Structure formats: C-alpha cells, structure tokens
Sequence to fold (313 residues):
Amino acid sequence: MAESHDGTYTTSEEWFDSGGTRCAARVYRPTTADQPPPVVVMAHGFGAVRALRLYAYAERFAAAGYAVVVFDYRNFGESEGAPRQVLDIAMQHADWRAALRYARSLEGIDPARVVAWGTSFAGGHVITIAGQGEPLAAVIAQVPHVSGPAAVRSTGLRAALRVGVPGMRDAIASRLGREPVYVQSVGLPGRTAMMTSPDAYPGMHTLLRKSGLKEDAYPHTVAARIALKIGLYSPRRWADDIECPVLVQIVAQDAITPRRVAERAAGKMRHSTVRVYEGGHFDPYVEPLFDTVIADQITFLHRHVPSLPRRHA
Fold:
C-alpha cells in the first residue's frame, strides 16, 4: 500500500526480477503531476545499500515532481540472492538494466524520460550502460568510479596487496563451490579493507548516523573476489559513446576517485555538465555539501528532463 508524505508524493515498497532474483525497490510518485512524470532510477556505490542516504535524494526528487525508483542490488540489502554480499560487476549491470525496464513499465510514468542516477561505483555503472546504448534521457554520476588503474593507484600498493590475498582465496573458494571469503568494505588506514583512505571509515559512520541506521543494520563486508576485478573496470572507456546529457559531480579532495581522472572522463562526453566541489568522497551525501549537490542535480534535471506542469491549489 502506498504511503503519503505531506500530500506531495507517495512511497511504496515493490520488487522486480533480475536474472530470476527479486530485487527490492522503493517507488516514489509525485501526487501533483498533471501528466506522466519522468522517473529517476537510483542505486548506491560499492557494497552499500539504498537506505544509506539515498532516500534523502529521492525525497527531494519526488518533491520536485519526479517519480523515483531506488533499488538494492541482488545479494545486498533488502534484495534476495545468495551467497550474500557478492559484488559481481556484470551482475550489477544486469540489475541496472532490469531496474530500468521495471521503471519504464510502471503505470503512469513517462517511459521515454528515464534518468539513471549512480554514485561512486554506481556512477561508473551508469556511465557504462549509457555508453553501451541503454536509452536514457539523462545520467547523473556523483563522484563516479571511472578508472580501475586510477582507483588501485589511489588505494596504494600495500592496501591493494592486503585485499589481494583474501581476494585470491575467495576466487578459489568460488570455483570450488565453497562459502565466500569476506573482507570489510571500509576500514581504518592500515587495516585489510576495500576502502582505507583516511576519510573512508569516519565517512561511512557519518552516513550511518545521518541515515538513522545502527552499526549492525546491514553487513559492512563484501566477497573478497571483487578485489581482483577493480583494476580492470574502467567505465571511462564508454564515456565518448554516451549520447544523452550527463551531470558529473566531482569532489576536489577525492581519495577514492581522483579529480583529474574524473574530469578527463567527463571531457570525453559529448553533452556533459561538470560540477566540482570542495570536499572528500563521502561529503556529498551529508550537510553542508548535500544541499548544494542535490540542488545542482535538480537544476540539471529541470533543464534536460523537466518535470511537467503541476496543478496549483
């Protein structure tokens, strides 16, 4: 059953099928649109779930007249799928395409005006699928992962080696049909984790707190095999094939996605809008930067995929 929020929009908990697995989706529908609105499809970054501050963005989009679909990848969050916490890049691309098909199928939605919104690792996903020909009205890529080699370099050799060992163990376990070998998604510098930049651990805990989530609300681990794939995944190779408008939002002190690499990738896009902010990789999700970041996203949407006229009381 749909839940109303101040008469501006409703939300409902839904699901869609991706490769035979049910993926959880929260659907936001503006209540004041005269005609079918555009829809923004959203997913989180590396090993994260939709409840980790994505709802804050979705609420702003819905209040601005956009429908929104926020989903969890299979094996993560509220979605089904096993083994849990297995991050497979091709599988997440398939989840994205399934989510976009689902969004286009929603009653009362304009299927010709679908926007893909991704942050961090998902920012790379939306760049990739747009460049591979997914029909989209626009793309928003917030602090996107664009280069595997750049990500490994920014991580540092020692940190990469620390996760490489369990990565190999997990890859072997997968081949033998055994349970995954897990590593922490985020950890303190010097620890074994996928992200160990100085801002990563405190940044993640700030997101938990601002999302109203407890420390144990969801696992903070990922199957270690992904450590062997990060360096090979470079969404920027698809940048010059994207035909729709793209908003690329970069933070100047990003220790995970270096600014210069993201700017070069954005420069290859035919219709890119680039915004650079002071801050680190985890800052766009929370104040004081969040208000500026979301305002720029809504301005971009109003320009390229405008919500239709709304009734006046």
Summary: The CA atoms of residues 111 and 299 lie 21 Å apart. Residues 309-313 have pLDDT under 50 and may be disordered. Residues 157-175 form the longest helix (19 residues).
